Amino acid sequence: MQPCLSIGPLREGNHPDDYSRGLTYRKLLEEVCRFANVLKDHGVQKGDRVSIYMPMILELPIAMLACARIGAVHSIVFAGFSPDSLAERMFDCKAKILITADGAWRGEKPLYLKALCDIALEKVEQMGHSVEKCIVVSHLKRVTPCQENHVEQDIPWADDRDYWWHEEMEDKEPACYPEWMDAEDPLFMLYTSGSTGKPKGVLHTTAGYLLYAATTFKIVFDYKPGDVYWCTADIGWITGHTYVVYGPLANGATSVMFEGTPFYPDNDRYWAVIDKYKVTQFYTAPTAIRALMKFGEGPIMRHKLDNLKVLGSVGEPINPEAWLWYYRNIGKDRCSIVDTFWQTETGGHVITPLPGATPMKPGSASFPFFGVKPTLLDESGAEIKGEGEGYLVFSQPWPGMMRSLFNNHERFEETYFTKFPGYYCTGDGARRDADGYFWITGRVDDMLNVSGHLMSTAEVESVLTEHNRVAEAAVVSRPHPVKGECLYCFITPNENETFDGKLVGDLKKLVRERIGPFAMPDVVQHAPGLPKTRSGKIMRRVLRKIAINDRNVGDTSTLADESIVEQLFANRPQETK
């Protein structure tokens, strides 16, 4: 057991001049107990749902752990979601209380979260559910404004419903006896996208999830006392739940929480943070890696990255070129890379290399974690032995897996267990090579079927990004009268590179040579940027709409830059308009 005075989470703000704050484990316990008493005073009891809509500030894990201490079920909604999305989730879980902040800065953009919450609370009321209280962290006044001549907005307030966090905490005792929980009592729920458009409330329980989070964190990142670990994920996603909060804290780790972006105030911010805190384990997304690659080695050379021991990749398959850039430029040819495959539903890593133990292959998720049994099935449900490609499923449960969908166990069974009875179906495709390594090929619905040839978007994107003029690529399918589907490619060139006919021809030739004539793209479009959520995920449904020139793209409020959608429509090649 780690000593209670270990250094706990360290906060790095949006602006380098923002206040920096760290918590010892003793101070963290006291703050958690105080806020647990706040929740109890507002009538929150074991089993109640508490919605949280907050930026990456220390009050966020304090709120999560306070809920866990009294047996309340926290439901975090990423603070980039729209009021409609927040309202839908609060209504579905019948939240008793909402916890938020007055606002935050994201790069140079102010986000007025409390105003968005008020819209959501009104919508929930119209839907037939009343959220009783809203507790608000005063955050904007303690951080550095990121715009010249910025004028602060008034914070909307309802005296009969809204409460300031700091005022509520003033007279609370720093001790709160924990609620006794059964192993299978719910710990939290987290909504993830559903194929029907209605989000699914993935439910994780207390003992199994915590055990799996703690174990995978310690083993996969090879964490040792004295290390400094940093996961760049937002806590609003499962990566933040497991590998920013529960996994590190259960191991008494020193970890960094980051409120900013990789590009503010300059594109060396990640490397500056690693240097500042002497980070030893760094865990980020391939999207971020590819976005930073285009700036070259200059931003990296300004900082010392000598303390790094383990690099991690999460969120999507990493293409070999990005993997090698990460290994050579950030890891200096000496760090292990753990390319982790897992999902909101799995709770933690299920397929991953282990640092120093697994021979690395660029782009491979490698082998299953201890006790996890992946299997490949074909369309008929027959097992694929040895080398081959098919649906990735699991044949037995593990401690961290989801237990149900909130208030909808029937949908849980239908979504994950009916396609292949007796197996948990991930919805992803995978390939197993001759050495037994698993290569994740992407979501099954991201598979492309061109003239009867099945291929994954990740496979084509990996080839496109090998070109030395390409920073990022995204591929979707478009209906074709002869082939059934054809490839439509979006290309972001490197900085100072132009998009021209020669590049288009080179890319088509490269795909033809590397995959085959059947895979040659029909359309290659210039994309100054890609439609990404604030967590860095590419929103492929928007790209599919652009490919067929359908402007009914749906809700784009979760995009980091909504204006990119119109730019992409305007950039569609003339022959496709």
Silhouette: globular
Distance between the termini: 64 Å
CATH architecture name of the domain at 1-14 and 21-144 and 152-180: 3-Layer(aba) Sandwich
Number of separate strands: 26
Number of helices: 16
Helical residue percent band: 25-40%
CATH class of the domain at 1-14 and 21-144 and 152-180: Alpha Beta
Could you describe the 3D structure shown?
Strand 12 (228-231), helix 7 (238-250) and strand 13 (254-258) form a beta-alpha-beta unit. The chain contains 16 helices and 26 strands. The strands form 6 sheets. Strands 9-8-5-3-4-10-11-19 form an 8-stranded mixed β-sheet, sandwiched between helices. The chain is of the alpha/beta class and 577 residues long. Among the domains are: 1-14 and 21-144 and 152-180, Rossmann fold, CATH 3.40.50.980; 451-571, GMP Synthetase, Chain A, domain 3 (2-Layer Sandwich). It catalyses: acetate + ATP + CoA = acetyl-CoA + AMP + diphosphate. Its EC number is 6.2.1.1. Residues 21-403 form the AMP-dependent synthetase/ligase domain. Residues 459-537 form the AMP-binding enzyme C-terminal domain. Belongs to the ATP-dependent AMP-binding enzyme family.
